[in-house]
Amino acid sequence: MAYSAPKGANDLLPDAMYVWTRAIQEAAGVFGRFGYQMVETPIFEQTEVFTRGIGEATDVVGKEMFTVRSGEMYRRALEAGSDAPLKADQKLSLRPEGTAGWVRAAVQHNVVEPGAAPSKVFYAGPMFRAENVQKGRLRQFHQIGAECLGATDPTADAELIIMLMLYFRNMGIPMDKTTLLINSMGDEACRPAYREKVRQFILDHADQMCPECQRRAQTNPLRAFDCKNPDCAKVMENAPRITDHLCPECQDHYAKVKSYLDAMGVPYVEDPTLVRGLDYYTRTVFEVQTSFGLGSQSALGGGGRYDKLVETVGGRPTPGLGFALGFERMMLVLDQANAIPIRPSSTDFFIACVDDSVRDTAFSMLTLMRQAGVSAEMDHQGRSLKSQLKLANKLGANRVVFLGPDELAQGKVKVRNMATHAEALCDLDSARRILEQFGGRTVGAATGRLSADTLFAQ
Ligand code: HAM
């Protein structure tokens, strides 16, 4: 029986894995210049980290979380005929996003000391949401995210947005085809009254809205701004706008974020209906959207400020902000733009055996080369010389070293530069000495990486 990957979960084969690794390296480079260090948290957490952190009334937690059980707990649940009661630390879920887990870790390890400089971290890894699968919407997808804890100043918001845009630009996303949307969600001083206004507005228009939005009026009225039902969308066009209901402090904060973006020439569009799908946001929220290559799943990345989240998961009051971008969506856009980074050849040398008598020498050269830090390959299937050369070409080898019994008898090998086709007869012993030096097999061994260009330069 042949199996397929589960619906909505992709295998990352070498070409895609190369781009994923490049995407992480670029993040390490760009985010590193902004002071962000890489971290990793578990792929599963106690379910409560997400229900409390992200919010029970969100789609992500309410409908899309994969909740997992250990083998023992699963067996007990089956035996009990229904869900056996579980202790809090036995209720585990796969992470639907990275923020709640990082904030849990930051509280656990006391990462932000009072009065200390902000903590800035980034992460890269798989996230899990049981969504209806479509283009750009998967059940296991990869995010690169960044989180800053301990900074209230609007410069931190602007810095984060600028960092995200710089990252997308460096990765080759066509910036003229993306839009940065921003909004302010207010804070605990002004949002409750605003929520109430939206709730009342939905109730007043309930007869024109879908049952889901009518339910949302009670649980999470702001989600109605994201309803895809055209009737609801039409009604919500006239709903009260948060930007008309911000308290003076939130107004000031939002104005400053915008002024920093203006000063740095970062274009944005204000969208007072941008509410984002997670409950922890306060004040600044933003999303980078494009329809280029993405279709209806237009968000390439998004984030915002979450000044209450650390307290919600049991820490001291600590402001926070961050974003995450979706790797698979970024791949779709790069593909459309013909800008997917191509995996370069990683083979410096291919060692070709003219006949079987030289295989021992070939194998020892191969191993010495790898130990010395250059990449090398040989045939392991007893191919003819012609098909060894085909393989060398397929691997994109920069040079082929021909081991032939006649040349070897004189201590020589023929080296062909595959780009120029130039050939030279080179001294095997001196190449072997260099390799042993760089491979650490001789006293006073050379350090550093051997440049493949210099190996057969003699
Ligand atoms: P989010 O908007 O839910 O935010 O996800 C961020 C990005 O992940 C999206 O813009 C999208 O590119 C990608 N993404 C989300 N769901 C899927 C999916 N089902 N399939 C493919 N890609 C997807 C967050 O996750 C927040 N934690 C961001 C954040 C960090 N806010 C503050 N700090």
As a whole number of angstroms, the C-alpha radius of gyration is 29 Å
**General shape:** elongated
Number of strands: 16
Average residue pLDDT: 94
Q: How far apart lie the N and C ends?
A: 56 Å
Which ligands occur here? histidyl-adenosine monophosphate
Strand order of the largest sheet: 1-5-6-11-10-9-7-8
What is the tally of helical segments?
Answer: 17
Main beta-sheet strand count, sense and barrel state = 8 strands, mixed
Class based on secondary structure composition and strand pairing: alpha+beta
Bin the helical content.
25-40%
Low-pLDDT sequence parts:
none
- Estimate the strand proportion: 15-25%
Structural description of this entry:
By secondary structure, the protein is α+β, with helices and mostly antiparallel strands. The chain is 38% helix and 18% strand. The strands form 3 sheets. Strands 1-5-6-11-10-9-7-8 form an 8-stranded mixed β-sheet. Strand 15 and strand 16 form a beta hairpin. The longest helix has 20 residues, at 14-33. The mean pLDDT is 94. Histidyl-adenosine monophosphate (HAM) binds at residues 97-99, 129, 131, 136-138, 141, 143, 145, 147, 277-278, 299-304, 322-326, 328-329. Histidyl-adenosine monophosphate binds next to strand 6, strand 10, strand 11 and helix 12.
